[in-house]
Design brief:
Layout (H helix, E strand, L loop, with lengths): L1 E2 L10 E5 L12 E5 L7 E4 L2 E4 L11 H18 L5 H12 L3 E2 L3 E3 L2 E7 L7 E5 L7 E4 L10 E8 L5 E8 L5 E7 L5 E9 L5 E3 L2 E6 L16 E6 L8 E4 L8 E6 L5 E7 L5 E7 L6 E4 L6 E6 L4 E6 L7 E6 L9 E4 L5 E8 L2 E8 L2 E7 L5 E5 L6 E6 L6 E8 L2 E9 L4 E6 L10 E9 L5 E9 L10 E4 L14 H8 L3 E5 L8 H6 L6 H17 L8 E6 L1 H12 L6 E5 L18 H4 L5 H10 L12 E7 L8 H13 L6 E6 L10 H18 L9
């Protein structure tokens, strides 16, 4: 049951709010006049409970009323930020430290090497080609030339087995929709082929073409309409898209996604089916027989094919009866679970990935939120530990079965990303390319602490700051986390974080429940009815930092994006007095309607759905939008983007409008709506720097902290 009609629309009216708490002469109050956002009489009834949704009209991303509201809100936000005296200096310093060359690890396409490079401030990284590691590089593909403002991004590239062709996917303005093109790798000329409406797709070569995943062209808004009936197609090079062969679909289950991949030798097509963000079925088609073999036909656990050993057997990572994952061998002639052979067992540490290269298995683990790497034989016999440069995060080790060397990146909070070449036979690493960032790591330190959450659970947290920092409760602190979807937050270097640190700030990153740092059990402890554990862990992190005199409530900012935006929204509505500043970015903030837009339905396995009464009651308890009360809230800058078709901006629009209406305190409530941008992937460098400058400026000003903006 629903009642909905528009009452009035007055986007030009304003409410006034003066930031009176800033009484220091260096931080005079900045007056804010919010637009009076019109309301509608919209009421949903969930299992007998009436829930008002007065800002429902903001869900229409194509309406002129929504467009006008966005312009007015951005005008207010820009007006406030422009009055912060050190905003331009913050942007200048961020630009300075960002301006250094950044490289990806090299990878092979046929007999050529490829790598990405960003000269420093290029909006998009450029793909280079060279005949050998010592050869002269040449530009292979420059995404910066695809648009004048850097808002078209290269999202994926895949080379044919012989390396003669490259298929690549691009996205416009941060959207999840991809267009796929094909290039001749030798001449660097585009072929006439083009593919539209691809989404959540790989590019998997086999024979004279490749497999990809797509939806039908949306009938409504491309950026908010529900995504249904995902399909796998095969595109033969030279054919128009309307001749592509439909390979896999499930017309009886519109809310299933299908991802296609192939083994290195192209002998097996692998279709991974999912109903959400965890748990998948697995179907494999040997090229010899041309018939799909059902390896897993349910969605209870996660299964990931590493590669094939021969024409009958594959290696697969699974968490079935293995909460920290194990590696098994599966014979496709007898694929039943009872016939799986354990190769590497479940241990106390999380097995995160396995690569087949140089006749060995390179196995990555996560140990207390840090990387650990080992080498094994194909039969599961451990060969050696791989010595990493320090405690931090190693990414990469990708290669082909006959490669004798692979590359990996190593980084930590104060260890810039260096690239290493790993000799598989000798089990030795050598520095291949060092970072050129102008940063003195010796001035900073990182510690890992284990604090106690509300229910007594020990939660790890990294704390980074200048050496010799005084623990007097006055340090500006940026507390960041995610807490969901089995995602692990490991140490990584960020130029933006360095600007915060060099100004006397603290960066804190807790590995809260809901993430994947400690395997399936840690993830499940933050899912569905356990979601409050995630918020409790984050709140306890803030309390720990205050109790230990790192900071105070007046100097504590919290931040997170996407599911992390939900985290911030929930914590600031549950404990508004604990935090001075809040940055919920591209957040899932309406927990009752998230599943009605684009791919939102896939998150029901993580959150539960309001369509079911037991989940509605739980979601309603913590949904940030529905728990805003008439009280005082932290200084808040909601962050979203007009082309976000992952977490549609309506979440942020409605949350900001409600917060502006009900905030009883003097702290400002702003919403920063980026144009021609999406959920975050592929965002141009210029937009990233501008956003970070606004975030830091807003935080420091409301903390009444004056940055020095020097090393």
């Amino acid at each position: 049951m629903k009642k909905y009609f528009l009452l009035f629309c007055l986007p030009a009216l304003f409410l006034s709010c003066e930031n009176k708490q800033n009484t220091n002469d260096k931080f005079p109050p900045i007056e804010v006049k919010y637009p009076v956002t019109s309301k509608v009489d919209s009421v949903d009834v969930y299992h007998g409970v009436e829930v008002k949704d007065p800002y429902r009209w903001l869900e229409d991303d194509r309406s002129t009323e929504t467009e006008a509201w966005v312009k007015e809100e951005n005008k207010v936000t820009e007006g406030y930020l422009s009055k912060i005296p050190f905003r331009d200096q913050v942007k200048k310093r961020l630009t300075e430290i960002w301006n250094y060359p950044k490289f990806s690890s090299p990878f092979k396409g046929g007999d050529k090497y490829y790598y990405f490079k960003n000269d420093g401030l290029q909006n998009q990284s450029v793909l280079y080609q060279q005949s050998s590691l010592e050869g002269e590089p040449s530009v292979f593909l420059d995404p910066n030339k695809l648009s004048s403002d850097g808002t078209i991004a290269l999202m994926n590239i895949s080379f044919s087995k012989d390396g003669k062709l490259a298929a690549y996917a691009v996205a416009k303005s941060g959207s999840d929709w991809n267009d796929i093109y094909i290039m001749d790798a030798e001449s660097k000329q585009l072929l006439p082929d083009s593919i539209n409406w691809a989404k959540f797709t790989g590019i998997a070569w086999q024979g004279e073409g490749f497999y990809y995943s797509r939806y039908d062209k949306p009938e409504g808004s491309a950026y908010s309409s529900k995504n249904e009936f995902h399909k796998v197609y095969y595109h033969k090079i030279g054919d128009p898209q309307d001749k592509d062969e439909l390979i896999y679909e499930d017309a009886d289950h519109p809310l299933r996604n299908f991802y296609a991949s192939t083994t290195e030798d192209e002998e097996f097509l692998i279709v991974t089916a999912s109903e959400g963000t965890s748990g998948n079925a697995l179907f494999i088609k040997p090229r010899m027989t041309g018939e799909f073999v059902s390896v897993v036909d349910n969605f209870k656990n996660d299964h990931n094919v590493v590669g094939n050993l021969n024409e009958e057997e594959i290696l697969m990572i699974t968490n079935l009866d293995a909460p920290n994952n194990k590696l098994v061998r599966v014979n496709l002639k007898k694929p039943e679970e009872s016939n799986w052979v354990e190769v590497i067992p479940n241990t106390d540490e999380l097995l995160s990935s396995v690569t087949m290269a140089g006749g060995k298995l390179i196995v990555k683990y996560i140990s207390d939120a840090k990387s650990k790497v080992q080498q094994f034989d194909y039969d599961g016999t451990k060969v050696a530990d791989v010595q990493l440069p320090d405690l931090g995060t190693a990414s990469g080790f990708y290669g082909k079965k006959d490669d004798n060397e692979v590359f990996y990146k190593f980084t930590s909070f104060t260890f810039p990303s260096n690239i290493y070449k790993y000799d598989i036979k000798e089990n030795t690493s050598s520095l291949f390319r060092a970072s050129e960032v102008d940063f003195d790591a010796s001035k900073y330190e990182t510690k890992q602490v284990f604090y106690e959450s509300k229910d007594g659970t020990k939660v790890p947290m990294f704390i980074v700051h200048k050496k010799g920092l005084k623990l007097d409760g006055t340090n500006p602190t940026y507390l960041y986390a995610y807490g969901g979807f089995d995602i692990s937050l490991l140490p990584r270097f960020s130029a933006a974080t360095i600007v915060w640190l060099e100004n006397g700030g603290i960066y804190a990153q807790p590995n809260i429940r809901g993430g994947g740092e400690y395997g399936q059990a840690w993830h499940e402890a933050g899912m569905k009815h356990n979601k409050q554990n995630v918020f409790d862990d984050f709140i306890a992190a803030g309390e720990y930092l205050i109790d230990q005199k790192y900071t105070s409530s007046e100097r504590l900012a919290i931040a997170g994006g996407s599911n992390g935006g939900l985290l911030v929204g929930a914590c600031m509505t549950q404990r508004p007095e604990l935090f001075k500043v809040a940055f919920p970015a591209v957040g899932v903030l309406d927990m009752l309607r998230y599943h009605k837009f684009t791919i939102g339905w896939a998150w029901a396995v993580e959150y539960g759905s309001s369509d079911e009464e037991e989940h509605f009651q739980n979601l309603f308890k913590y949904s940030p939008l529905h728990n805003i009360k008439n009280t005082s809230y932290p200084a808040t800058m909601v962050i979203t983007a007009d082309h976000d078709d992952r977490v549609v901006p309506a979440h942020s629009f409605k949350f900001a409008a409600t917060l502006q209406e009900k905030n009883q305190g003097s702290n400002p409530v702003l919403i920063r709506i980026e144009t021609k941008a999406g959920h975050g992937a592929g965002k141009p460098t210029s937009k990233i720097i501008e956003e970070k400058a606004d975030v830091y400026s807003f935080a420091w000003y409301n903390m009444m902290f004056e940055p020095k903006l020097q090393k």
